[in-house]
Amino acid sequence: MVKLNKIYTRTGDDGTTGLVSGPRRQKHDLRVEAYGTVDETNSTVGLARLHTSDMAELDAMLSRIQNDLFDLGADLAAPDTGEKLDYEPLRIVEAQTTRLENEIDALNARLDPLRSFVLPGGSPASAHLHLARTVARRAERLMVELSRREAVSGAALKYVNRLSDFLFVAARFANDGGKADVLWVPGKNR
């Protein structure tokens, strides 16, 4: 259980932050960048949810994703170094990705097939979901780069990859089931 009585500790005043597992890292460290961008993704999903309250099914999915994103941040903040820990670190599990895949399939089954790329926009919910998708992609790029240097679980990488797919389908769903999608017209302004 998390207990936050004091918000500031002053321990980061030197430009470092503590990982869940204890060691301190520079605030510009790639691992910190990765879980910070996961946090940013969570914030953009929260913004999108300001516009999905009338779409109960989608809003519930986004609520679950916000919780998953905290799990993902916790996973990244406790790197698996192979050392025995005094606690069981929180890890993303395959079931979370499977749930996302099932939700993607459920939403996508109600959309017309795409015949063009979609431009971010349409409804406010859709525009915010597209923003969340691009931030999730940035988090994924950072996580992949980190995985080339340090341990990052395959389940975490799979989850963040699937998340951007979900957010794309969710953005279309929020655009009146794709009917209000803004389609790219190649070379339109030549």
UniProtKB/TrEMBL annotation:
SUPFAM superfamilies: Cobalamin adenosyltransferase-like. It comes from the Bacteria. Its EC number is 2.5.1.17. It is an enzyme of class 2 (transferase). The keyword Transmembrane does not apply. It catalyses: 2 cob(II)yrinate a,c diamide + reduced [electron-transfer flavoprotein] + 2 ATP = 2 adenosylcob(III)yrinate a,c-diamide + 2 triphosphate + oxidized [electron-transfer flavoprotein] + 3 H(+); 2 cob(II)alamin + reduced [electron-transfer flavoprotein] + 2 ATP = 2 adenosylcob(III)alamin + 2 triphosphate + oxidized [electron-transfer flavoprotein] + 3 H(+). Residues 7-174 form the Cobalamin adenosyltransferase-like domain. The keyword Manganese does not apply. Its main location: cytoplasm. GO terms for molecular function: ATP binding; corrinoid adenosyltransferase activity. GO terms for cellular component: cytoplasm. Keywords: ATP-binding, Cobalamin biosynthesis, Cytoplasm, Nucleotide-binding, Transferase. It is found in: Cytoplasm. GO terms for biological process: cobalamin biosynthetic process. Belongs to the Cob(I)alamin adenosyltransferase family. NCBIfam families: PduO_Nterm (TIGR00636). PANTHER family: CORRINOID ADENOSYLTRANSFERASE (PTHR12213), CORRINOID ADENOSYLTRANSFERASE MMAB (PTHR12213:SF0). This is Corrinoid adenosyltransferase. The lineage of its organism: Bacteria, Pseudomonadati, Pseudomonadota, Alphaproteobacteria, Hyphomicrobiales.
